[in-house]
Amino acid sequence: MLRVEMDRTDIPNAGPGETAATIKALATPALLLDKDRLDGNLARLSSRMARQGVVLRPHMKTAKSIDVARRVYPSGVGPITVSTLAEADYFAQHGFRDITYAVGLAPHTAERAMRLRKAGIDIKVLLDSPEQAIILGAAARAAGVAPSAFIEIDCDGHRGGLTAGDPKLIAVAAALAEAGVKLAGILTHAGESYGLSTPAGLVAAAENERALAVAAATTLRAAGHECPVVSVGSTPTAHFAEDLTGVTEMRAGVYMFFDLVMHGVGVCTTDDIAISLLATVIGTKPEKGWILVDAGWMALSRDRGTAAQRVDQGYGLVCDVAGKIYPDLIVSQASQEHGILSIRPGSAQALLDLPIGAKVRILPNHACATASQHELYNVVSAGSDAIEARWPRIRGW
Amino acid sequence: MLRVEMDRTDIPNAGPGETAATIKALATPALLLDKDRLDGNLARLSSRMARQGVVLRPHMKTAKSIDVARRVYPSGVGPITVSTLAEADYFAQHGFRDITYAVGLAPHTAERAMRLRKAGIDIKVLLDSPEQAIILGAAARAAGVAPSAFIEIDCDGHRGGLTAGDPKLIAVAAALAEAGVKLAGILTHAGESYGLSTPAGLVAAAENERALAVAAATTLRAAGHECPVVSVGSTPTAHFAEDLTGVTEMRAGVYMFFDLVMHGVGVCTTDDIAISLLATVIGTKPEKGWILVDAGWMALSRDRGTAAQRVDQGYGLVCDVAGKIYPDLIVSQASQEHGILSIRPGSAQALLDLPIGAKVRILPNHACATASQHELYNVVSAGSDAIEARWPRIRGW
């Protein structure tokens, strides 16, 4: 018995701005963004931060899209956080003015950031050493601008920053003052919260992040340095912080889309995950329990962030074309342009009989990584097959 | 003591076609391609295949660049292999005519490939089921063209294809004939060879790939089907095949650049690896044995292909700016825009004293994955600091 699903209206992916008929007519692999879920996720954290009296400074490293940023700020200028100066340039070109570049400063990024400052952008940079203060001071003098910098605090050993009690904290603040740089405040990121999975653990991580940030700010103030901003944030701690006393702003990025890693941490349900990858069945191997699709790591990314979690989702969790999860069907293997779907080990589910040409949607492990493999978002709404818009994203540095 | 390396000539990355002064002046992260190593790798496999009397059909999925393809074919039309129809379109626009699209066919790719055929491109497609033969026949009739297809053979259980002894082999050939599709031949890929690490194992994998491909072709011919091409290939088996009797063409892609996974397999030395990622030191944590650089998984990819090998290279092996390896210094952790360099566990090496602003080069685990994170190659030569050219690459589907 031959079964073939053919979409006679299949078209190659259109460019930004163009619209394609329907999800079913979309060439694959293609990235889908559910606008309703996006808006729900944005509203959830915005209202939470409004209740706690803390400014939300969304991190644009996940979405990298002016259209997504405009869902947060329909006509605003920020505040936003960025992970590259390419993002800073892009959002500045679209009218954003209040931008924090939250990666440690190097000579070339100092010079480039100061050119943005010269162009009227209120860009704030990040550092944790007297060396970087000197670099920044030199770049600012060369550009003829007065810069503003955060000192990075390491609250959980994740990567950069000074521990809250490090005597170098005062030395960095002094070096900034000497270099003519305004201290914007302190900034920390509870990156280790991604490894947690219980509400109690997440509440404790958020309190640790808050307490150490506030302690560092207190130390600086006691030494006579103004420290106006106390900036904390990670998607897990942003959603579990019970007390933000002393904190002035919150940063988070992946909360806009969520993903399977955040689901494993316990921050969202699978129904909150706003992006998915549309793929097509290109082969079946029932004798091995495999369905082959045209979505490999090039479309999904190599991220295996759920491998260390209680439930390993492989390279993603498979849904039907409307977004309903097929129980225990995951992308178990990925090569460059091939994905292998199979039933999760230990499950009693039977493999589906999906014919060649059938389309599926795959929820990704890590939204930042999967989205970065694509040029644009195909924007959809729950319960509709229509592609409503195509939102471009940027890449590079 | 403050040590700062400042490059006053640092510039943002220029676009394709533009040239930047020197490696030291390049903004980071940036992808470097050593032209001499590339040419050496190309010559090595070309001359090997010439000696064995087998056509080399390079796979462009790794390089995705017309400039790299022109090192193989200064003014040719192919033959080449591609992993996406975006690659097929791109190389066709640049004059290539003989193209094999080596991913299993779906309805939308059948239609698009037949449009390329209508435009005069000798594109051959891949399938392993009667369903796909029907899909292809319908697309060909709609476009008014006579298509040509390979039947995929599974020689090692890696992903798609029919086993050489599968009775469906004859059924697929019959379905192709009935659909009016010419049988191009059979095609197989010894993908499991990436998991090997001994010359004897690689020689055996190559012989297995050859023997099963030839067996499938023999079965088809005995049933009265012409089977002109017997196409095999993977970078490891291409370099270790001792006998290619019955094989007419070889496909390989990553051999152009090589990488740490191929080094671990035993196909190349680290001196053959032609691409590297230029990064800048943005922080140090000597108390933890860490150096922080501005190259995270966005620049390196999330590929951890060496994790399963004898020597785990983390996210990459670190070299000085001239390309000389720092013994046992690896990228041990990566977040989106941060990499953490540290000495490999168990090594007695001491951590280097690299100051903020110092540049390093990182050899990648997987060339296909790392290159795909970048817009272009900054082309360099051994022993020179000059950026000689910028070669764009394509992406998408």
From TrEMBL, chains A, B:
A Pfam family the protein falls into: Ala_racemase_N
Keyword Transferase: no
Residue ranges of coiled coil: none
Swiss-Prot/TrEMBL keywords: Lyase
Gene3D superfamilies for this protein: Alanine racemase (3.20.20.10), D-serine dehydratase-like domain (2.40.37.20)
SMART domains in the record: D-ser_dehydrat
Regions that span the bilayer: none
InterPro entries for the chain: Ala_racemase_N, D-amino_acid_metab_enzyme, D-ser_dehydrat-like_dom, D-ser_dehydrat-like_sf, PLP-binding_barrel
Entry keyword annotation includes Lyase: yes
Positions of the D-serine dehydratase-like domain: 274-381
Family named by the database record: Belongs to the DSD1 family.
PANTHER family tied to this protein: D-SERINE DEHYDRATASE, ZGC:162816-RELATED
Protein name stated in the entry: D-serine deaminase-like pyridoxal phosphate-dependent protein
Organism of provenance: Bradyrhizobium japonicum
